[in-house]
């Protein structure tokens, strides 16, 4: 095991897969000499060369479209879309092509392509560089969506995504990059998509959260423990599509309360899907309505005070948990 | 790479990537006399439409037609049997689509259908010039392209009818037909999206050193899509083995090209990427064959992509049932005069191909297609639960969505 940041874990995963499989290549904007806008691929050009670490034009539709074509004819491309907002520039190749090609051809091809992207508010990057849009993609049959919060999961699940035969959207929250954790070193070790993780065991309320939110939920858990005596169980599904519903239901049946927290806008978000599934499958176990925590109904603003008003923090999780626990601080 | 635009190179002397004399992009020459404009084609805005009968003239005026010394055309090497095969491909594609129209009208063909009647020379010329292992990606008007790659017409017809014996087991239909056994990556229902996709297929050919080329077909309508421009840009930067083949039938669905494209001569768009560019009369199957052969050799040798503008005419509506109210009177009738199939037939007779050989092919196609329709009609529809297969590589899918 080695201590490394989430950023290093992502890089390690890509490097291990590039070393392991000559069909893997990595392409995106500014990923080569610069090492990516978030520094994730720093140093990779030197090891793998420009054929496998391919700088591209600012051309998301072509980058993903070409990756899809390459994936169906023998390569296993990993693509970086610099900000999640920019996936809107590649919606046709992701949604119209990658997700459907295997289906439309009656299974004649597989599309082993991994689309990495990152986003998240809190950096005053304004409305066009801060959105979390995972629910756009969890809604598309044919896509898998992976969104781990922990460094070790980032490594193991990115490796799993690259080895997966389907198009996988791998979403990194910007807040996670500097977070550190123990990460394994066996290059053959690989994670499993669709398996959630209990990040903190508790008995009074379940918080289902992903992306950057688990870190905030863990903070919230400490506060609630100390101030309210509420014991929070924190579940990170890690993969949203396929979703590990079992781990969520098991927890809710134990705690009888559930809050779903994501950074994306609350209304119509993936949290609504989780809430619906929980009430459908564990209605009799619930002592309170399932509450959702997410962004208010506005684009992410620029000014720090405005941004903080729209984007949920640990306090919003605390408030929601107190509400379902019928507790007042 | 490509710092100096190698724009609009001519290949009069050395067709295979030899130093070509750089010719400056010729500005629009509408009404210059080289591309005569029909009076009937005047629009409401007062702007005259691009002449609809001037594919050949337009190519001569603006594009670079691959030309050869006498006896040096790649098609000169084709045997009579091979020429007859090219003719068969055209007749087969035509008959396939005529029957598709019939079956559609009889209610045996669900959805909606785009036919390429009149454009078979491009499909056949390209199809026969490619190697067996080369890849093609097509458009919503794909039947002829796929047939020209040798796909089984019985399975194609069954696909059109949504049958289990269809090439995609009834999941694709007309607009999403693919046949990987013939390296047909697929038709595409999104206009222009084949361009970046085939760029990726070409990237795989380069990386895996297969020596194969990829072909992206698209139309004049798609030529205004960002995906086509982005694909061409990326392919040129990476010098990928791909041919971008623009079939200019002068209509984007119902809208004439002159309303949507600000240049008369679509070859000039190759200049934007410094891309090797050819123009060809897309109704002349041997010219298409020659141009494609030269282009494929160029791309295969690692010289980068080639852009080909093939002028043609759609002898049918955008879709089966299209009343074509947008077409100037007399245009469709005039277009029929340039039907590539009778033209090629006459050419073959001139080349002393015995007429009985052509008649034999025509009869065989008739029989083949009759059998294909019968077999398709007799085939089962897929079981309803097949709808849940092929969503992912795994089946059943491990997520909760399928269990609900």
Task: Outline the structure in words.
The complex is a heterodimer of chains A (329) and B (404). By secondary structure, chain A is an alpha/beta fold. Chain A folds into two domains: 182 residues, Rossmann fold (3-Layer(aba) Sandwich), CATH 3.40.50; 128 residues, Rossmann fold (3-Layer(aba) Sandwich). Chain A contains eleven helices and 14 strands. In chain A, the strands form three sheets. A seven-stranded mixed beta sheet of chain A has the order 3-2-4-5-7-6-12, with helices on both faces. A five-stranded mixed beta sheet of chain A has the order 9-11-10-13-14, with helices on both faces. In chain A, strand 13, helix 9 and strand 14 form a beta-alpha-beta unit. The N and C termini of chain A lie far apart (41 Å). The model of chain A has no long low-confidence stretch (mean pLDDT 97). Chain B is α/β, with parallel strands linked by helices. Chain B has a single domain, classed as Rossmann fold. Chain B has a six-stranded parallel beta sheet with strand order 2-1-3-4-8-7, with helices on both faces. A two-stranded antiparallel ribbon of chain B has the order 5-6. The radius of gyration of chain B is 21 Å and the shape is globular. Classes of the chains: A alpha/beta (329), B alpha/beta (404). At the A-B interface, helix 3 and helix 4 of A face helix 6 and helix 7 of B.
What's the end-to-end separation of chain B, in Å? 54 Å
Structural class of chain B: alpha/beta
- Strand tally of chain A is 14
Helix content, binned percent of chain A:
25-40%
CATH topology of the largest domain in chain A: Rossmann fold
The best one-word shape of chain B is globular
Shape-level CATH architecture of chain B: 3-Layer(aba) Sandwich
Radius of gyration of chain A: 19 Å
* SSE string of chain B, helices as H and strands as E: HHHEHHEHEHEEEHHEHEHHH
* SSE class of chain A: alpha/beta
- Which regions of chain B contain 5 or more consecutive residues with pLDDT less than 50? 1-62
Q: DSSP strand (E) fraction of chain A?
A: 15-25%
CATH topology (fold) name of chain B: Rossmann fold
CATH secondary-structure class of chain B: Alpha Beta
Give the mean pLDDT of chain B: 86
Name of the CATH homologous superfamily of chain B: Thiamin diphosphate (ThDP)-binding fold, Pyr/PP domains
Strand order of the largest sheet of chain B: 2-1-3-4-8-7
Shape of chain A: globular
- Please report the number of helical segments of chain B: 13
CA radius of gyration of chain B: 21 Å
Low-confidence stretches of chain A: none
């Amino acid at each position: 095991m080695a201590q490394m940041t989430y950023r290093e874990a992502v890089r390690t995963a890509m490097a291990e897969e590039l070393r392991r499989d000559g069909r893997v290549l990595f392409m995106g904007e500014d990923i080569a000499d610069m090492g990516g806008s978030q520094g994730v691929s720093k140093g990779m050009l030197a090891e793998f060369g420009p054929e496998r670490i391919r700088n591209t034009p600012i051309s998301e539709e072509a980058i993903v479209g070409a990756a899809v074509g390459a994936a169906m004819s023998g390569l296993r491309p990993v693509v970086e879309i610099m900000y999640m907002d920019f996936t809107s520039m590649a919606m046709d190749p992701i949604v119209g092509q990658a997700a459907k090609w295997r289906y439309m051809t009656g299974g004649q091809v597989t599309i082993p392509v991994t689309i990495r992207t990152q986003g998240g508010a809190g950096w005053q990057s304004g409305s066009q560089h801060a959105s979390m849009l995972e629910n756009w993609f969890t809604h598309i049959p044919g896509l898998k969506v992976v969104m781990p919060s922990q460094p070790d999961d980032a490594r193991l699940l990115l490796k799993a995504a690259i080895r997966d035969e389907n198009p996988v959207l791998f979403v990194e929250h910007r807040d996670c990059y500097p977070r550190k954790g123990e990460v394994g070193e066996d290059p053959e070790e690989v994670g499993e998509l669709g398996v959630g993780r209990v990040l903190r065991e508790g008995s009074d309320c379940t918080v289902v959260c992903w992306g950057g939110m688990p870190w905030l939920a863990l903070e919230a858990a400490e506060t609630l423990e100390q101030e309210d005596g509420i014991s929070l169980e924190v579940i990170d599904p890690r993969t949203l599509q396929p979703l590990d519903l079992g781990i969520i239901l098991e927890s809710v049946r134990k705690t009888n309360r559930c809050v779903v927290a994501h950074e994306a806008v609350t209304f119509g978000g993936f949290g609504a899907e989780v809430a619906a599934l929980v009430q459908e499958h564990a209605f009799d176990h619930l002592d309170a309505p399932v509450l959702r925590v997410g962004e208010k109904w506005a684009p992410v603003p620029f000014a720090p005070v405005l941004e903080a008003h729209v984007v949920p923090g640990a306090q919003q999780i605390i408030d929601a948990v107190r509400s379902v626990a019928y507790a007042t601080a | 790479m490509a710092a100096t635009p190698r724009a609009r190179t001519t290949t009069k002397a050395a067709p295979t990537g030899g130093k070509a004399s750089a010719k400056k992009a010729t500005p629009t020459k509408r009404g210059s006399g080289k591309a005569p404009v029909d009076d009937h084609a005047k629009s409401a805005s007062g702007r005259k439409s691009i002449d609809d009968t001037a594919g050949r003239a337009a190519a001569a005026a603006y594009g670079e037609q691959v030309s050869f010394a006498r006896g040096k055309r790649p098609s000169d090497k084709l045997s009579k049997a091979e020429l007859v095969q090219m003719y068969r491909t055209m007749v087969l594609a035509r008959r396939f689509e005529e029957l598709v129209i019939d079956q559609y009208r009889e209610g045996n063909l669900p959805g909606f259908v785009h036919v390429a009647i009149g454009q078979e020379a491009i499909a056949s010329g390209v199809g026969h010039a490619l190697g067996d292992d080369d890849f093609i990606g097509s458009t919503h008007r794909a039947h002829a392209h796929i047939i020209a790659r040798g796909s089984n017409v019985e399975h194609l017809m069954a696909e059109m009818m949504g049958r289990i014996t269809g090439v995609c087991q009834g999941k694709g239909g007309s607009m999403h037909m693919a046949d990987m056994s013939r390296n047909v990556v697929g038709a595409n229902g999104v206009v222009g999206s084949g361009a970046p996709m085939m760029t990726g297929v070409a990237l795989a050919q380069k990386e895996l050193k297969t020596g194969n080329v990829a072909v992206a077909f698209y139309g004049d309508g798609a030529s205004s899509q960002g995906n086509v421009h982005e694909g061409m840009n990326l392919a040129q930067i990476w010098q990928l083995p791909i041919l971008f083949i623009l079939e200019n039938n002068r209509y984007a669905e119902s809208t004439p090209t002159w309303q949507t494209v600000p240049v008369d001569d679509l070859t000039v768009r190759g200049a934007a990427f410094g891309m090797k560019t050819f123009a060809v009369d897309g109704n002349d199957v041997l010219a298409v064959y020659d141009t494609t052969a030269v282009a494929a050799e160029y791309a295969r040798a690692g010289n980068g992509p080639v852009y080909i503008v093939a002028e043609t005419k759609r002898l049918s509506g955008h879709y089966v049932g299209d009343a074509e109210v947008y077409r100037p009177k007399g245009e469709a009738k005039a277009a029929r005069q340039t039907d590539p199939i009778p033209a090629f037939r006459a050419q073959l007779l001139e080349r002393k191909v015995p007429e009985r050989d052509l008649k034999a092919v025509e009869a065989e196609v008739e029989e083949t297609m009759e059998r294909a329709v019968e077999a398709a009609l007799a085939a089962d529809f897929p079981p309803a639960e097949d709808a849940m297969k092929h969503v992912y590589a795994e089946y059943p899918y491990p997520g909760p969505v399928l269990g609900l």
